[in-house]
Each structure stands twice: as C-alpha cells, then as structure tokens.
Design a protein that fits this description.
Helices cover 41% and strands 9% of the residues. With 236 residues, it is mostly helical. It folds into two domains: 4-95; 109-232, Muramoyl-pentapeptide Carboxypeptidase, domain 2. The strands form three sheets. The protein has a three-stranded antiparallel β-sheet with strand order 5-6-7. A two-stranded antiparallel ribbon has the order 1-2. α2 (42-55) packs antiparallel against α3 (59-66) and α5 (86-107) runs antiparallel to α7 (162-173).
Length: 236
C-alpha cells in the first residue's frame, strides 16, 4: 500500500491520478479530471477528495485529504486493492443525488445570467474576457491575453450559481460550507461584479500567476498556501 502527500512526485502519484480520473469518468464528473503528470498538486487533491466522497468515505477521511494526505487505507480503496465497507457503500448511495445535482448544474448552467460569459466551455465573469468593464476600470480580455503570453489556457472552474457552489461543498466535505476550504453559496465563484467580482480556478497556476503580474491583470491569488489555483480581483 502507499501514501501520497501534497506536492509529492513520482510513480505512486501517477497511479493515484489514474485511479481518480477513472472514477470521475465513470461518475460523469469528467471536467474534474486531472493531468496524469506524477505531481500531487492542489488540483489532484481536490479531485481525490471529490472521488473519495463519491466512494463514500467518511468526513474525517475527506478532511484528511483536504489537509494534504492520502493515507494507505484510503489509497487502497481508491486503487480498488481493498473493498469498500457497507457503511461506505450506503454513504455513497446517499450522496448520489448531490452529485447528480452538481453534474446537472455544470452541464446546464443558466443561459442568460447577467455579467456571465462563455470561455472554452466554462462560464466566467464577463469582465475577465473583455465583455464588461472590470474592477480596474478597463475592458480587457485577460484570459486570452494570458494565453497569448504563454499560459496553457485550462480552467477547472469558473462562475457557478450559488446552488452549484453549495453542491460542491456538500460533495467535498458533507456540509453547505467548509470553513477555509469551500464557501458554498457565498463563494466568489458565484459573483460577477462588486464587491468581489468573481473567481476562476486555473490549471498551470504558477505560470498563470506570474503572467498576471506581467500583463497588469487585476486577477491575483492571496491563498497560495491553501488554494493556489484560485484567482480573483480580491485574491480570495
């Protein structure tokens, strides 16, 4: 059996990523899948936490994963080297309606939400793509400008309805909000204008962050220790 810690690298991380991606694909949560690159970054742990919730792990295990550890017993079940308990199977079934709700909200977001635009299959605050004046008083397509400056251009999350944001928390930690981890209906992801101006979660976050400073973008991250993929005007 194996353990995986946050920022660990190597073959065992690749194994975890493959098992997580396979489960997310079967659960029709494929937009949460991660790059199989052998690097256990924050997106890998977020996807692992969602996968563990789908599999029926108790909240204490979900918290442990959120804190940056996949223990040997958890890894064994995720890798299908150990069976799930009956309690886990029942818990998994009980959670399916929340996952169905999250899936439906992702696949069928509101079409006419004011201040929200489409970008590469994700909804984002319109100012981020130059379709509204942003918090800096400018009208700039910051996401395309970031791509032009060398970012790969992949998002993991953009704008979400308040109900969708609550579903994410329920599926990550079993509660409508998870202090320090998941804000639920008050999430920046559910905003498009003042005072918070919305948020996105990005792949290749280190490069994205460096590019924002270079191009003078108002998007920033002040949560590097706990949520380095999250960028917004407020940084939170």
């Amino acid at each position: 059996m194996s353990t995986v810690k946050l920022n660990q690298t190597g073959a065992v991380v690749e194994q975890l990523q493959k098992h997580v991606d396979s489960t997310l694909n079967k659960a029709e949560l494929d937009w949460l899948r991660v790059k199989v690159d052998g690097v256990a970054g924050p997106l890998t742990f977020k996807a692992t936490r969602i996968t563990a919730s789908w599999q029926g792990f108790p909240t204490e295990n979900l918290k442990e994963i959120g804190d940056g550890l996949v223990s040997e017993p958890v890894f064994a079940v995720l890798a299908q080297d150990a069976p799930r308990s009956e309690e886990m199977r029942k818990r998994s079934e009980d959670r399916r309606k929340n996952f169905a709700k999250m899936r439906d909200e992702h696949n069928h977001p509101p079409e006419d939400t004011d201040g929200v635009s489409d970008w590469r299959g994700f909804k984002v605050a319109s100012w981020m793509v130059g379709e509204r004046v942003g918090p800096d008083g400018k009208t700039v397509d910051w996401l395309q400008k970031s791509v032009d400056s060398g970012w790969d251009g992949d998002l993991n999350s953009g704008w979400r309805s308040p109900a969708h944001s609550e579903s994410v928390c329920l599926n990550m930690c079993g509660a409508p909000t998870c202090p320090g981890r998941c804000a639920g209906q008050t999430s920046n992801h559910s905003q498009v204008g003042p005072p918070n101006w919305g948020a996105i979660d990005v792949q290749d976050f280190a490069r994205f962050g460096a590019i924002q400073a270079k191009i003078g973008s108002p998007l920033k991250n002040l949560l590097a220790a706990t949520d380095p993929v999250h960028f917004s005007f407020t940084g939170r």
